[in-house]
Amino acid sequence: MARPDLGLQYSGWQAIDATPQEISPHSKSYVVGPASLSAVKTGQSMDYDTDFVVAEVNADIRDYCEVEKDKFVLAVTDTKRVGKTVSTKTVGSNKRCDVTDSYKFKEGSELERAALGLDEPDGASDVQLDVSFSKQPAIGDNFDVIVTAKCSVKEVRTVRVSVAVSSVSYTGGSGTSVKKEQGKISLTRAGGSGSYTVAVRSSDYLCCLRDQALLSVTVLAVVSETGKGWVSKVPCRLHRPDLTLLVDGKQVEDDEWVELSAGKSYPVKAYFTNPLQKPLTNVVFLIEGARLTKPLKIPGKNTGKGKVAEVSFAISPRSAPRKRQSQSSKLIVTCQSKELKGVMGTACVTITK
């Protein structure tokens, strides 16, 4: 949109948010924008609410350790976790479109430091730490959390490590504790490295998962010789099994477009393989799709480990009542069970006459 109030260089894409976390200073209500992305990227304070959007995509995360009762010291500042993947919906598709480069310069670049008035980065610590996973886990998998430490000085360094794994709700709030372990990593030479591994088994987390199949791994590390602390909180999203759709006998990939004629009936089959080491019980398939079918709730059979859960039904596409109305729709099939929730498959449908 044009921004004659700011000038030609600030026209174009604007950020707008009707449900922000703070009250806007210009309107005294919970709204953001329109905030010029050009102003946001260059770190300028302009109407409306560019300061807030700059903070949303550039803020630092600081972790503090309580060394005594009510006395906290800064353990670590993470300058890279916020604003890593700014996304929007791709036009004509349900795929993610990355727009990070529209909001900020490359992390750590000279342009970023100039835009935000940042100082040069601090010198490196004598111990660098990293958290990784043995693999990208799916629901039902066993996996390892690996804490790696590398020493950059000649002196011996001993790193005490605490690892806590917990479930997470869709709001980001912590849920049930899954596992806690403590250990140490001994570093005896410059350039030397070591690691500490925590084994997470499916039996540890399956009973604790919430709606998002998301775990949070928090690592606290302290170097014994220097007292320096380090904290990292890493999300671990567990991949749900793919629900396959067969429309009129043809397999449709997730969000793939399929052309169907109005007034005809088409058979649909949906299925997936149980990835858990136990049966799925109370299985229910939920089906919806505007102008394709009325909402359906179809009970499924209990499904043993490694077996296929499936459902069959029919859809009858209808044309939109008005010519200007979109002749497209979306078929959504979701499977819920006591043990596994949110297994979903979708198909985008173009309805022809």
Automatic annotation (TrEMBL):
Signal sequence bounds: none
Molecular-function GO terms, alphabetical: protein-glutamine gamma-glutamyltransferase activity
Gene3D superfamilies according to UniProt: Immunoglobulins, Transglutaminase-like
Top-level taxon of the source organism: Eukaryota
Record PANTHER family: HEMOCYTE PROTEIN-GLUTAMINE GAMMA-GLUTAMYLTRANSFERASE-LIKE PROTEIN (PTHR11590:SF40), PROTEIN-GLUTAMINE GAMMA-GLUTAMYLTRANSFERASE (PTHR11590)
Full protein name: Hemocyte protein-glutamine gamma-glutamyltransferase
The species this protein was found in: Geodia barretti (Barrett's horny sponge)
